[in-house]
Amino acid sequence: MNAAVDRYAADALVDFARTLLARAGVRDDIAGDVASILVDGDLLGHTTHGLALLPAYLGEIERGTMLRDGAPSIVNGRASAETWDGHRLPGPWLTLRALDRAIALAGELGTGTVVIRRSHHIACLATYAKRAADRGIVALIYCSDPSVCSVAPFGGVTPVFTPNPLAAGIPTSHDPILIDISASLTTNGLTARLHKAGQKLPHAWVQDAQGNATDDPSVLFTEPRGTLLPLGGLDAGHKGYALALLIEAMTAGLAGVGRADPTDGWGATVFVQALDPQAFGGGATFARQMDWLVDACHGTTPRPGIDRVRLPGENGMARFREQQANGVRLHSTIMPALRPWCEKLRVATPPSSSPYRPPSSD
């Protein structure tokens, strides 16, 4: 029998995270946005990019490497494009501001793009894609971290890139299509979690320092260190490699700050683009095309062992609704990691309710 897992009301988690950030000195509106994005990550099921990030964020705030207050400055601006300096402000707040600005530009001009240099970490990209799609806007969000090297280019064993995630929010007449993938086969967050727990990856998604693919994340934490494999692995990793280069160009390249510069520490360079379907073929025709694709994908015959074909983000949206209604199932490592901060900042943990018991594996 599997052990029960406590659930927490989503609103209570947002208030809990906001209070911790505010007690750490973060401006109230920034704290609220960061808390909301982190909890949305857990609601969608991205458990390494939700509240699991909050202890590290609080540590960065305490050290002064993530700012508590301030505003981005516009480095360059054209009619439908802007480049911001984020001054190492919290990434979720900055990215929400960039998304709002890009959507406003798209409302006037059909499209809007904001690139941010020197943002801090931006958490789960799908959360921004969902917010745009909920407003009928197509959004593209790309991210890289110039301070981290954990992914080798295809054919190499020397790290150059971060996983370089990209997300897209595509509205339909029903749930949005939410794409949130990276240019690598796995992420730093998942490999670190599994390594700490002494567990293996589901597949050979990393390579050791000699270029041998393995499912053992410990090769990333022992010298000489291995690397994450690009999307496609040893067979077709040229595709992930190419994608990583594209994301570097759209983030660091357009922002003018990246791996060619001295590092500021853990953070992000961010690309946010919004497109208003009304400015192109029209909102109704966009929905008709996307709805046809959704129906066609759902209607395909599944291969053996698959119950039915799903769209990207479909499971995430189902989790989002179920957990909003019944409480969020936090990963078992999250609350223990936050308890020292609760004691330090004198913040009570939220009450749990309605324990969730996973189905038995017997």
CATH superfamily of the largest domain: Malate/L-lactate/L-sulpholactate dehydrogenase, NADPH binding domain
Silhouette: globular
- Unreliable parts: 358-362
Number of helices: 10
* End-to-end Cα distance: 7 Å
Mean pLDDT level: 95
In total, how many domains does the architecture comprise? Answer: 3
- In helices, the fraction of residues equals 25-40%
- What is the string of helix and strand elements? EHHHEEHEHEEEHEEEHEHHEHE
CATH architectural grouping of the largest domain: 2-Layer Sandwich
Please provide the count of β strands: 13
- Reading side by side through the largest sheet, how are the strands ordered? 2-3-4-11-5-6-7
User: What is the highest CATH level, the class of the largest domain?
Assistant: Alpha Beta
**Biggest pleated sheet:** 7 strands, mixed
Rounded to the nearest angstrom, the radius of gyration is: 20 Å
- By CATH, the topology of the largest domain is Ribosomal Protein S8, Chain: A, domain 1
Amount of beta strand = 15-25%
Main features:
362 residues, alpha+beta, Hypothetical Oxidoreductase Yiak, Chain: A, domain 1, Ribosomal Protein S8, Chain: A, domain 1, 3 domains, seven-stranded mixed β-sheet, 10 helices, 13 strands, 17% strand, globular
Structure explained in plain terms:
The protein is α+β, with helices and mostly antiparallel strands and 362 residues long. It has 3 domains: 106 residues, Hypothetical Oxidoreductase Yiak, Chain: A, domain 1; 170 residues, Malate/L-lactate/L-sulpholactate dehydrogenase, NADPH binding domain (Ribosomal Protein S8, Chain: A, domain 1, 2-Layer Sandwich), CATH 3.30.1370.60; 43 residues, Hypothetical oxidoreductase yiak, domain 3 (Wheat Germ Agglutinin (Isolectin 2), domain 1, 2-Layer Sandwich), CATH 3.30.60. Helices cover 40% and strands 17% of the residues. The chain has 10 helices and 13 strands. The strands form 3 sheets. The chain has a 7-stranded mixed β-sheet. Strands 12-1-13 form a 3-stranded antiparallel β-sheet. It is globular.
